[in-house]
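User: Fold this, then the next.

Assistant: Folding the first:
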Amino acid sequence: MTPSCSSLLMLPTELKEQITEYLDLEALEACRLVDQDLKEHSLRSFQFYFNTVTTTLHPDSLQRLINISNYQDFTNAIHIIDIKPEDRHEGILEDLNSTTLKWILQSGHMLPPYSYQYTRSYLSALASGTCTALLKRALRNCSYLEDVTFSWQPSSKVAISSELLTWNRNELDHLTRMQSTVLGAIIDSGVKLRTLMWCSSSERWGALTPKILEIGSGLMSRLRPALENLKDLDLCLQAEINVPRNAAFLTQLLELTPNLSHLILSLDTNVYQERNYLLEGMCQATVLPSLCEFELNCNGFYSTELALRFLRKHASTLKCLVLRDAEYPFDPVGERLETVIIPMLKTLRRNFRLETIQFGIDEEQRVEKTMAKLWPIEQLEESKEGVKNVLTIAIEAFEAMLLYYVATGVTFIT
């Protein structure tokens, strides 16, 4: 690790770039060594700007991260590393060449909305293990690292390969390589995380890929040291291929996190039975003794029932239950509400710590408030005419639930 330095003049370029990213234009000029006062300013005052450091998986970007982590004035300030897989300016993407363009047209695929493709040097570095080795070095240097965020953007922007393989297979293979790089670096670096977020704005492509989900028990056991202190887990799963292995992966992963207190689980909304298979496996096999908050992002009545089963299993510790993107919390007929849901809730009344239940509705239904608000139907705008029946059913079901919970002190929020 390089020695401490008292002057901004002697900072490496990547350190000055990290600082100036958060400063205004006037301060930016000062960081370019125009202002004498800033030259003599204590470097400790800039440590705040290194709490979160963003990188890509390109070797050049990872080398800059290593240079930052080598500098003792700032390495202890790094608590979050945010990994962005795609960047137009990092040597990861380049303009679509004529060979790839010709292959796309001949194979009958539609052109991507942006004419970019991954560079050969980047793909080669991923395949050779270079990126894993560099990321591992950076993580090892960050002794106070707590969070690793891996956020994947929709890959429809990019043409993955000119090889004569199916488009989707190329996407999954590339994403698997990136995910393997990050997981491998976490394992080999010896870091102990408090937060792991594996998701993105795109449900489908934020998910862990099927090949990653097929990893053996040996790799799972190697993950244990990194996750044994984990408090927060935000995870996307793709539930449409090799479902038994997916369920086993989720169960094994959660078993590695005995101190987990906040779990956010986002499941592929394109599949119904497979999604519930995952939840059933989790309900049957998983016990999280420290779990306080559980958030489930997927739609369907049966998913809500499974979430309540999970609640019953963790009734002694769970304080907050959040169910998002639900079309409605209970079935429209109401039969299972009376025969399954209400009895299940009643069994929790003697031994539970639940303080908050939050239901959410899919934004596509254009209902802006949750059932917890219980807005009268007449207050809805005319443009929401098409969802009145759905909302009426939801409100009736929710009111039935309230009858059992008002006396217990449970709070319902949006």
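Now the next one, as you asked:
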Amino acid sequence: MESAYHWLSIATRLLFQAGLHREQTYETVREPRVLRRIAWYLYTMEKSYSCGLGLPCMIRPHDFHVRPLTPEDFDKFDANSQLFVELTKINCLRARMLEVYWRKDESEGAEAAYDILRSMREWIDRLPDQFRLYSGNNPKRLYQRAVYELHIHYFVVIATFFHLCGWAVRTSITNPAVLVASSCMARLYEEILYREEIGLFLPIHNWYISIASLPQIHALSGSHYADDTAEEELDILRRGLQAMAIKWPQANNLQISLDRLYERRVSNRHPNQTVVPNDKDLTGCSEYTRDEIDGTVLNRLVCDLFPFPTSMCPRMDIIDAIESMNPGHEGSTETTVPAAWDKEYQFDWTLNLFDPESLTDGYVPSTSMQTFGEGLSF
């Protein structure tokens, strides 16, 4: 009764009962602008909590027919209104990712995944100047908590893409890109911690911090990036969860789980990776058809997701390494990949915070708790 997801579930059912998932409803209601904003907020938050808690989606994309928000939907389209629109845009990409996940055995699934990459690149490229972390060529960030949180959402969406759609890209790109996103998140949370403002965040940030912690633990478990930077950034994220736990005690459960995972994967690790030459199948998964898009184009798409200066985080140099990858060409370097394909390696090799197999199902009360238990089994 006290969980945010419980009240979100009630609000979602009221949305369907009132017909607010259909655009024609807004032609007759008294306050269409307010109700449309509410509908989009519920839609994006439902996607966030479904991913975070491992519960089935209550609003499927093909059941939601509400036009995107425009300035006309606000009494005053100020900075806060524009920020809400940008948050809605980036979080809506999760619904498309879930669709791609379920189409991964179809030939057009890979192209749909690349379309999502292009959408993420378009979002960050078109972000208004007032919401950017950096102004022009100035390597120093101007602290704005709302802007920091907006970019945290962006980096979480990147990580979610590589979890749900990572089969469409080479693993040599997938894991380094998620590590860069994790490093960026850690540095943003660090500044928020300095100002003691992390307590202003909603409990969904418990999951965001956990997602950012996984690549750091993976790096420490035997990759090329097992260094002091990974330990430092993991410590930042630990402190973030500890601070969140003051207001949201459920963060303690995630902290305990991450500590267990660290103990299992790092303190008692066994070598589970090897360095293989690039003439091997870098996807690591032979049942999928190799993508026909040129590797250089793919590398460029991934690199364009991080249009930040090197001062953003210590891992930004990884982007240059990703860009230089071009499989099948002479002179290509060796790449770290799993010794054998393991479904748990891509992103859910660690703490299984959510189960993608249930994310596009309809909400069934009799099975929801069973799915929830599976999603949080450690």
